[in-house]
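Input chain follows. Return structure tokens only.
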Amino acid sequence: MSETTSAAETAAPHRYTAAMAADIEARWQDFWDAEGTYEAPNPTGDLAGDPELAARPKKFIMDMFPYPSGAGLHVGHPLGYIATDVFARHQRMTGHNVLHTLGFDAFGLPAEQYAVQTGTHPRVSTEANIENMTAQLRRLGLGHDKRRSFATIESEYYKWTQWIFLQIFNSWYDAEADRARPIAELVEQFESGARPTPDGRDWSALSAVERADVLGGYRLAYASDAPVNWSPGLGTVLANEEVTADGRSERGNFPVFKAKLRQWNMRITAYADRLLNDLDGLDWPEAIKLQQRNWIGRSEGARVDFRVDGSDSITVFTTRQDTLFGATYMVLAPEHELVERIIPAAWPEGTHAVWTGGYASPAEAVAAYRKLAAAKSDVERQAEAKDKTGVFTGAYATNPVSGEKVPVFIADYVLMGYGTGAIMAVPAHDARDFAFARAFELPMRCVVEPSDDRGTDPSTWEDAFASYDAKLVNSANDEISLDGLGVVDAKARITEWLTTHGVGEGTVNFRLRDWLFSRQRYWGEPFPIVYDEDGIAHPLPESMLPLELPEVDDYSPRTFDPEDADTRPETPLSRNADWVNVTLDLGDGNGPKKYRRETNTMPNWAGSCWYELRYLDPNNDQKLVDPAIEQYWMGPREGQPTGGVDLYVGGAEHAVLHLLYARFWSKVLHDLGHISSAEPFHKLYNQGMIQAFVYRDSRGIAVPAAEVEERDGQFYHQGEKVSRVLGKMGKSLKNAVTPDEICTEYGADTLRLYEMAMGPLDVSRPWDTRAVVGQYRLLQRLWRNVVDEETGEVTVVDTEPGEETLRALHKAVDGVGQDMAGMRFNTAIAKVTELNNHLTKAGGPLSRSVAEPLVLLVAPLAPHIAEELWRRLGHTGSVVHQDFPVADPAYVVDETVTCVVQVKGKVKARLEISPSITDEELEALALADPAVVAALDGAGIRKVIVRAPKLVNIVPA
């Protein structure tokens, strides 16, 4: 504030100023903490003794887990927190038992990277960040139940994260029952012979290692050797969902490459159909649902087996099995496991020179090409490059419908993450296959009749012909003909033929891949897994949880060469030999044995997959969550068939990360009977972003926004002209404004009002510090309407207000209540402002019957000043639990409206009438009006058109 403004404010000793706001806010925050004002009672014990409270509807409101950054909060961070707080306060005032709290998602890379740079233990920096962020959030007056707060790094919390992992590890998905079941039930099936083993031997004939391998093929959490996304910059592997569209890490924007490592995975693909279908019952933004549907990527087609010389077959998934007669070659992803098995020692006689890449043998060609492919991201591999690359493996496969031998290539445009990692190439009818076939001089066959005049000889074409409407041609053998059929009929016929001949079948494929669950880092949850001397994974018994992180001297994972099969990343945990190598009695009857601990840690997503459940029952050390408590807060109910949190607010960036993972964990826990809710979050709301101007000098480097001057529409920093663009707010962009700054200058209630008034909550909006003062002035006018600035005395009177004021009040009550329920906080503030301005202009002291509902209207938005005014108005209880005002319908509707009466289309009269008048009443009034009678001049009436309450049109005979 300027010196002039400050002087004017201090002239009145009881004026609402920043200093007064600071005093009021601190006192009421202390009061709320001391009184437990925001503590939400649970159904076991608390509600049982209070029938009135037990009868209240519940509301579970959540924000997405914040990460405690060392930079602290800027004013963009609290937008969602303030919004959920306003909504929660309104819900309390409308009779709900509200659970609203906030914890910290505190494992992850930022703290570990800081530890690598400074040597500070991640726990030390993380706890310091939590303390700082907690103080910042408290200053905003957020009404959280602090008893329920926690951080994921607390061993009491991650004990249950590890416990959930073990539930998933000890489960398998029964496709027939369409749910997860304990792995022990699968073992029973193998032991009894009800389910045959893969090779047909009795279960008892299998070795311990063989049994573990069989069960690993079913477990929902399993370890496997597979191509992974390796980020050298982060020193860890990443899940597919953590790799951006341009092939870089979602965190840090580092390049991502392919490598083959043994890693833990979650079999989320088993739930693909349920994850897809259950979206329909969720109250989520359609854009988020669409992202999840696209990521899951369900497609119907056929599995087709191409026999390779020897005992191997290459299996492809295709949605265009009708074009199978046109498959003239095959392509495997360079990482495909069959590549090593099918390549011959030497090039087959007559191999085309273009196919070999100039290498002396298939093994050399494949090795060289794999090296090139590994250096590219998935995005680079799929880019529509002019030059297609690949190499012949030296192997041939048999097209099952034509019997033709077709060459098998590897090429980087085929990825292991999609389909089966192998394609049948139909170059005449696929653009990428067409380009590849031209580059490698491969044959093409037209099997879909072109609708243009290009003819049916692909060698004369300039591009592929793709169509779902054309007829099939050149597609017949001695047993089946597709010629003349449309695509749909041809698909059905060829699928039936493939099934009958045992070389394929109709199937459904998903784009979704299993969730890579290992990280080669220190700062994460340890896996509750140990390995015996045979390498078999054993779960720790529950009595050994939590398995806590050990101390290490070096937090840096040591990278490795993905091209060298003999190297592996060295994780920080692996360097603590005393922790890794242990002798344990797992309680399995085998007594104490030597084991080796898992030295990877869980990803940062693990703790946020289930944190909504911990909020319900945060101190339970015996169960994940008390069933009665979970049922009360999250169980299925009318309108929420799969249960879940009533309102979940956060950014849209986690659509296929946290939101998808949490849904998967909930479904597993639901299947196993641990929770009643099959979905974690029933209603999802994505708030927009608070943006800020970024100023850059001639080098493109951001300069401090606070130091930029505007002159004649141009912007200057230290005399140099700079550019300006609207973007994100952040420390690195030098445009961050902290909430502490605004609270100090104006007060937290002003900041709350400004952030809610900036625009619709779900729309991004630019920050303008100069505009904050508008909401500050609103609070000052509110204060003056209740308190004398000179004496500090309350000025309200007990007389009744006039009708005009009553109408203004009740319209505001009605409108604000609707806006609060609909999370339209900007328009709610506009209505409060309009009412307050009306009262200011009306002059004179406020009637108590107006002042009190005015304070209650403001309470969810600006709780500190509302508490202060409520107390000064003579009330002893907190405003938090007062009833929200209810509008009198008689004062909400307009007293009269103007009705236009036309005769022969010309206006002859205007009537002031009740807005609730009926058509019949309005017609009678119009016909009786003297001006209308005169206009008719005795003429008969052919028709009267009534549009109550605004229009009557009379047509004379």
